[in-house]
User: What shape does this take?
Amino acid sequence: MEERYDDEGLRDALDRYLGETRLREALVDVLITAYDIQGRFAFFFRSARARTDPAYDFSMAEAARATSAAPAYFEPIEVTDAAGQRSYPLIDGGVFAINPAMCAYADVVGAGKPVNVLAALGTGSLTRAYTLAEAQGWGQLGWARPLLDMVFDGVADTTDFQLATLARERYVRLQVELRYARDELDDASEANLRRLRGDAERLIAERSADIEALCERVAG
Assistant: This one.
């Protein structure tokens, strides 16, 4: 079965904005998540390693394409390191790190650097409720989509709990509840985009003090 979308438009946009830029050329440290479907391991594009070892250096456009390869929406992509030593078939890192903030925190702390502020910007929390009566009648096939939503929600909530406990006031999570917008990943209709903007504007209004404080801390 083919993926839902052709990636030509996405590749064109990445080529236009990223061109031939390599991971090692990032102006600030970058960590991008993906997942190797053959080796079955979490894969991290890390600019810090790319600067010192070509075996960890990749095209920025390919890294962006890999991390956006959501299963069933876009095909996986194979990337090859700058040294030509190894290739990796990759999909979206969201399958294991729907909120990658913990990965970033571990990377910085592991390098012995201080974490002054850690900001995580979510894409909207799901509000679709499932009743006990519905779940009792689902069966194996019926559980497929709801279970995926629950796993993603649970992983994101767990990451939020862990970072709030470890980083405390240094951690700021900006996550809007999707009260009006549809939560389908690919609903880019004009009506839903307006609803998404409305939800985002509500988040900004409700968390304006937190956002201003965050900007001050980053600028300082």
The CA atoms of residues 132 and 138 lie 10 Å apart.
